[in-house]
Amino acid sequence: MALTLSIKKTWFGLILLVSILPMLVMQLWGSYKYYNLQLEHALQREEFYRELSLDHINQAIMRLVTLLENKGDPIAHNLAHKQNQQTLDELLAKVIERESSVHGLLILNTDGSIITGIEDHDPNLGLSPTRPSLLAHWQPSNSTNKFIKSLNNGYHISPIEIHPEGIFFRLAVPIGSPKQPLAILVAYIDASSLWAGLKDHLTEYGLTAYLINHQGILLSSVSGSRYKIGQSLDHLLPVQAFIAGNTLLSEKAYRGIMGEPVFGSMSILTDMNASMITEVEQHHLISPIRITLIRIILVAIIVTLFLAWLGLSLTNRLVKPLTAISTDFKRVAKQNYTPCSISSHFIELQSLVDSFNGMVSEIDKSQRKLRQAAAVFSSSLDGIIITNATGKIIAINHALTTITGYSEQEVLGRTPSIFKSDRHNQTFYDDMWQSIKELGQWRGEVWHQRKNGERFPTLLTIKAVNDDGDEISHHVSIITDISTIKETEEKLSQLAHHDPLTKLPNRLLLNSRLEHALQHAERKKTQVGILFLDLDRFKNINDSMGHTQGDHLLKSVASRLANAMRAEDTIARLGGDEFVILVEELEDMQGIIKVAKNTLSIFKKPFHIYNQDIFIEASIGISIYPNDGKNTDILLRNADTAMYQAKEKGRNNYQFYTKSLTDKARERLTIETNLRRALERNEFELYYQPQFSLKDSAIIGVEALIRWNHPEQGLVSPVSFIPVAEETGLIVPIGKWVMRTACMQHQAWLKEGHPPIKIAVNLSARQFHESGITSMISDILEETTMDSTCLELELTESIVMNDVESTIKILNELHWMGLEISIDDFGTGYSSLSYLKRFPIDRLKIDQSFIRDISTSISDAELVTAIITLARSMKLKVIAEGVETKEQLHYLKKQECDEVQGYYYSKPLPAKELIQFLHKNKISIS
């Protein structure tokens, strides 16, 4: 008959066997071990207190020995000097006064006779007739020789003796050398008095302690005990052990001196022939242990009851879900896949429920996944091919038909090679199938062929599918038509490598082609030419006609350049109005010259933009590989440098690169770098060139001229650095510094007592058109407290004729501030008299280029005369600069020029030298 078990009964049995019975056994064993451990700990503590009490006794005796030894030296000194009795008694009295346990003191000769002595109740310190008889009963017996022998150790303690006056023991120390003492100091110690001082230490620890001698006689009183001092205690267990010389077992209980069960211990005082016995009551040690054990047992009972309740509760929670799950499994057997609704706190049971529900859910999911897979297969936009192990197509989706043009009937049973194009060789396909064999998959770009013969790019993914035996059973191929992506990539490539406005190659593509051309030229030992083209004054077209027409002009220029060049040449736009022409396989210089001339010729005809003809020219710089550089950066940079040389030579021409151009460019770069630091390092200073009236030769003002005192190069000519400052924009902060410094110098002259003088300061084009120019000048005048009528601003013709309306507005604001305005380098520009009349100006300044040759050049002389006449008609003053000879001065006086300045009078001078010059030549300031 098969054995059947109930989970509920089995669970209760396991609780009983695994939990309750082991707990009871462990409780009994633990209680026993705990009791012995705690008892052992208590006895060890009692033993420690006993040893501590014994240590107190030894310390008290050693303290007495030390006290007697300290008196030994003065007593020895006194004995060596005729035995002064009174001094000896005083020394002995001090010992008794200090130590209450010392009852009597004797000083003995080495033969045992008494020299002197004293008791604690003796009122006399001197010798008396009754002294010998009073101390006779303290006379030691024939044990003096024993004293002397034992004193070799430093002191001697005799056994405790019972005297009529009490219980005493002798403590003897040598007077003088222990080996040959002069005398012996003997102290009779009252054991009861000494013990009374030690008992307090013992009672602190809950101990009962008493002394017995070798006969078992009680030597100390015990509070609460019926035994008195002198009574025999030989019936007590520790006393019997002491008399018999046995060891007292501390863990064995006996009835003690108080008549109660105790645990005791014994300490033998060898020198006193006595023993100290300490006792602690048994219930004092056992009671706390019993209380603790009772608490532990109660806790164990509560825990056991809790476990029993918990076992019952857990059993019910275990059995109930199991029964329900069993019912659900029966339901599943009837094809009912409704999920189980049981919930359990047991992880395993809940896992079983979850697994059951998971099984039901997986069946449902499998059905849904099959439906979804079929939907994905049929609705995917990518073509899908499924082949069997032999490579035959067994299924395709609708997308493949759309992509390739083949119907399902046309491809089933055939291999995917029907889609193969001739763009890949056999090695490509061998590598592809080798990768599938090794890795189980392959992914890459493949060109396929449609049914109509059209080739198209695809992204092909092939994955091997293994069966349960890990053998390949199918291959799944996914074909994605990437024709549109390829077209987009080509468009992006076009945008990345071509200029969006002109459709010409950009800098990136130019660099690539130039690099390739240089490599080719190096192999073929040929030359490569670079033409760097920049349109002349293109900014004027943008500013006057607008950027839209400027862009149309650039497109037209690009179109003409493309039509004029060979197919193998590259024309690129770098940005703005800069173009580069790359000419490959040059044979000689004439070839590149021909290209340059042809390029310039296309600009002879106007460009028709928005029904308007526009004429524009170009400057070309040329560099040639390998003479002018061997890499792209150097060749382009040198061609750019040559292009600027072409602009300097009048524009509308071409120039070849030379080394001097590079040196000049480097010099300019050095000036620019140092110029940026010059303001910070305070390297600039102002020179002042005086201006004179031709009527009375009085000084009417000075022109402030900047000088750069470079720490290494010395004074740098303004001709070298002012154009660089203009181009880089540094002229703005430099011009501001010039104006502030000039105004501050003017105020410094005033403080030194000199009369006010007009100072002329030049304004650059950038500075004049900088926003806030009037505010900047106003702030400087306010900061320096300079009178505005003492400041004159010099502007060139090109400045005032650029954006006339804006210039008139700014000049009016400056004029209203009280400043004088003069036109510098007059005659070198293209001033319009109609505009000139509208400018609020005060004087015209004739350029020194006209003054230089007025005595030899009729045209220059007539031009100067015309300017003076024009100024007079417009009620303007005229000042001529650059006057260096007497002939020039006489001609200007003859033409009634108002003012002059130049080396004939003085070169530009520093501020201090200018004042010295005026004083030296006694020149007045008008």
SSE layout:
Blueprint (H helix, E strand, L loop, with lengths): L6 H73 L5 H14 L3 E7 L5 E6 L11 H5 L8 H7 L5 E2 L3 E3 L2 E11 L4 E10 H14 L3 E6 L23 H8 L8 E3 L5 E9 L4 E8 H52 L13 H33 L3 E6 L4 E4 L1 H7 L3 H4 L14 H14 L1 E9 L5 E12 L5 E10 L1 H15 L9 H18 L2 E9 L2 H8 L1 H18 L5 E6 L2 E9 L2 H13 L5 E3 L2 E3 L3 E8 L6 H17 L5 E3 L2 H20 L5 E10 L5 E12 L3 E3 L1 H11 L2 H21 L6 E5 L2 H5 L3 H12 L6 E6 H4 L3 H13 L3 E7 L6 H4 L6 E4 L1 H4 L6 H16 L3 E5 L4 H9 L4 E3 L9 H10 L6
Parallel strand pairs: 21-22, 24-26, 26-27, 27-28, 28-29, 29-30, 30-31
Antiparallel strand pairs: 1-2, 1-6, 3-5, 4-5, 5-6, 7-10, 8-9, 9-10, 11-12, 11-15, 13-14, 14-15, 16-18, 16-21, 17-18, 19-20, 23-24, 23-31, 24-25
Helix pairs in contact: 1-2, 1-5, 1-7, 14-15, 18-19, 20-22
Keywords for this entry:
926 residues, alpha+beta, eight-stranded mixed barrel, six-stranded antiparallel beta sheet, 31 strands, flat
What is the C-alpha radius of gyration, as a whole number of Å?
64 Å
Q: Which strand order does the major sheet show?
A: 23-24-26-27-28-29-30-31
What's the multimeric state? Answer: single chain
- End-to-end Cα distance: 146 Å
Percent range for helical residues?
40-55%
Number of strands: 31
Unreliable stretches, pLDDT < 50, 5 or more residues? 124-130
Q: What composes the largest sheet?
A: 8 strands, mixed, barrel
Mean pLDDT: 80
The fraction of residues in strands falls at 15-25%
Global morphology: flat
By secondary-structure content and strand pairing, the structural class works out as: alpha+beta
Number of helical segments with 4 or more residues = 29
